[in-house]
Amino acid sequence: MVAGDGPRHARLAMAIRTAIRDGQLSDGAPLPPSRELAAELSCSRWVVTQAYEQLVAEGYLEAHAGAGTKVRSAMARPPARAQKTTHSAPVRYDLGPGLPDLSAFPRAGWARAWHKALTEAPHSDLGYAPAGGHPALREALADYLGRVRGATVAPDNVIVTTGVREGVSAMARLLAGQHDRIAVEDPGWARLRATIASSGLQPVSLPVDRHGARTDELDDGLHLAALTPAHHFPTGAVLSSQRRADALAWAERVDGLLLEDDYDAEFRYDRRPIGTLQGLAPNRVALFGSVSKTLAPAVRIGWIAAPPQWSTRLTQTVPEVGVLDQLALARFLRSGSYDRYLRQARRRYRVRRDLLVSAIARRLPQCRVSGVAAGLHLLVVLPEQSSAAMVTAVAAEAGVRVMDLAACRLVPAHDRPTLVLGYGNLPDRMVDSAVMALATAIRTAAPG
């Protein structure tokens, strides 16, 4: 195994990262399949898949269905001492999707919950975390998911993990022993697609329109599909009632399983949050969630509301979460602090969304906005002749972080050039200046 301190998967990721930076692994160089490398290093396959997923997320590797994992083109570097030091522009305006308002994290409330967890926990709770999660958190999550998200799950079927991607990875590794392909929304969350691919399943494109994923087109030759029914990323579409029925009918017909990512469904501004698909068919749907989009990614707690037939196996494959962190979240949920925080957050994000939409209307009248009813991001459709990739690059040079919708595509499409703008972590006072900076980038990137 790779020598050094720290978790094995982190040490392996560091070794591969260093080999790429030093030029020992060249552009496009294939990496061994996870099973082979795990056998060679005498470690579990999970160690290898976690290392690969981390490097895919960082941009060092790329994973393609049917083609394995390889060094991303133009990523290999000569030895560091031969490189000329370069510095990218610091991010002044964070309009990238994926983060909540980190400045609003409920530090005092979380500290109280954590302190009570520490001082009131019996000595027995200071050992290793129970498989699948501490019973107190599993019970609190089962109650919350049923009460707020309309899920149907017993505490024993709630599996605590470190996040949605880690939960999906654990599920995908189990499924890869029985299946080889999975339908994924296209466009969709690229990092989750990479997680699925590195776990041994081949992502298959499932188109999305204004009614959500085209579940009416699910192939009966498939048995797995990953969906975001309550709030599609990145378009913001809600899976229609007919498409929900189509998805569940397909799963029943093919004896299949749906993986439901419930990533930010609590933030809806035009009506009450849409309930989960899992609540309609708990034996056919595995529901994944976390506090990364509601509280902060640093908390590192997620969950799976698993079909009963998968619960026991999942408890043995998910990464552990610290017991005190679990007890703190359980107390935060049971005390009503989480509900109160979400109510405050919805009001805050609605105001910020309105500020952003208004600034875009003033500063970018040639652009069209969509996907504003929920979540922490929206879409900005650029003029036909624009290049979203060029705008993204020019904006980055000016310290403005945005996302090109094309980066979410599994299969390239001839869409209108479109940006995905997040507003979760952008202070209200900076919204107008951020849009002004983006408008400048759009003008600079304009052809001619």
Description:
This protein has 448 residues and is an alpha/beta fold. The protein has three domains: 8-82, Winged helix-like DNA-binding domain superfamily/Winged helix DNA-binding domain (Arc Repressor Mutant, subunit A), CATH 1.10.10; 93-103 and 340-445, Aspartate Aminotransferase, domain 1, CATH 3.90.1150; 107-338, 3-Layer(aba) Sandwich (Aspartate Aminotransferase, domain 2), CATH 3.40.640.10. 38% of the residues lie in helices and 15% in strands. The termini are far apart.
Quick summary of this structure?
With 448 residues, the chain is of the alpha/beta class.
Number of strands: 16
As residue ranges, the low-confidence spans are 75-86
What helical percentage do the residues reach? 25-40%
Whole-number count of domains: 3
Order of strands in the sheet with most strands: 4-11-10-9-8-5-6-7
What is the N-to-C succession of helices and strands?
Answer: HHHEEEHHEHEHEEEHEEEHHHEEHEEEH
CATH architecture of the largest domain: 3-Layer(aba) Sandwich
Shape: globular
Mind telling me the CATH class of the largest domain? Alpha Beta
How many DSSP H or I helices? 13
